[in-house]
Structure formats: structure tokens, C-alpha cells
Amino acid sequence: MSHETHVLMDEIAIRRALTRIAHEILEKNKGIDDCVLVGIRTRGVHLAQRLAEKIAEIEGAPIPWGELDVTAYRDDRSSVAEAKGNGKELLMNPADVSVHDKKVILFDDVLYTGRTIRAAMDALMHCGRPQMIQLAVLADRGHRELPIRPDYIGKNIPTSKSEEIVVALQETDGKDEVTIIQNRGNSYDHNSQST
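Predicted structure:
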């Protein structure tokens, strides 16, 4: 089986997508009052931080942001109950970022089945009771297994299940890039192309 890689978003495209998402968030929420940005570890955290900087630049005021570790809430762990045993300290960082009665904008790099987002919502509820939760993603590749839909999307990327979306960010990977890896030799499912 061979692999073919194509760049879908470069550094400029990612920057433009984040700027657009920042404006959409401000428009939908009529500013940043009672808003909190929460990035899902790992790359969602870097994207949330960049988005917070962009919103502060536009609004002239900072928006609180934090990072969320959803590991203990994933449904693909062998024992979720055991993992949740001492879960609270795994969650929000910094701990003083409150989500209670706030409009929380969750940010993740790629939306696929929706299971990470479900875990993130469970983790958020453990931290407090948000007024509402909105979802921002850099790339939406489809193939949802749960009824989860993003409010803000950097780019829709219809994929087959044999393809992979890889997000590289300067903070962790030394470059900003979204690529698709096509695995040659797998059968191509044309029905999976609709989002």
C-alpha cells in the first residue's frame, strides 16, 4: 500500500481561517462578554490560544481561555470509571478559568467521529455548568458517529475512511499545515464524501 500526501491548508490559509472564525464568534455572541475559549489537548490548545490572541487584537480586550484534558472521559479507555476517579485535576488548566454559566467555545483541530467532543462536553460538565457550548474546529472531515455539528469551521474536508487528515502546528511540529494522506490500495468509498 502506498501513501500520497497533499497539502490542503498552508500557514496563510490557517491564519485566514482563524481570523474568520474569530469574527464569526464575535458576531454570533455579540462580543466576548461571558465567553471562554477552551482548547482540547493537544493541538486544540494552540489553536485556542491563537484565537484568543486574534480576538483580543480585534476587540481590544482579552478573552479567557484554557485547555481541557479529555483523556479520562474517552469511551475508548478500558475503564472510564477508574480513569475518572481523580479526574478533576486533569481537566481545566489554568484551574481559575471558570466555565460555570459561561458561553464556552470548544476548539479542536480535526472533527471526525465526534467522540472526542462528546468526551470534552462530559469533562466540561465536571468543571461546572456552562450557559452554552459552541464548537470550533480547524478541519471537519465528516464521518460522524454522534449527532455533533460544529458552529465554526476552518475548512470542510470531505474524506474517505481510508484517508487521514494531519494537522501540523508551529508550536508542536515546527510548521503550520493541514495535509491529507491518501492510502493507495484501499477501496475508495464514494458515499463517504458527503458531510
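Summary: The first helix runs from residue 11 to 29.
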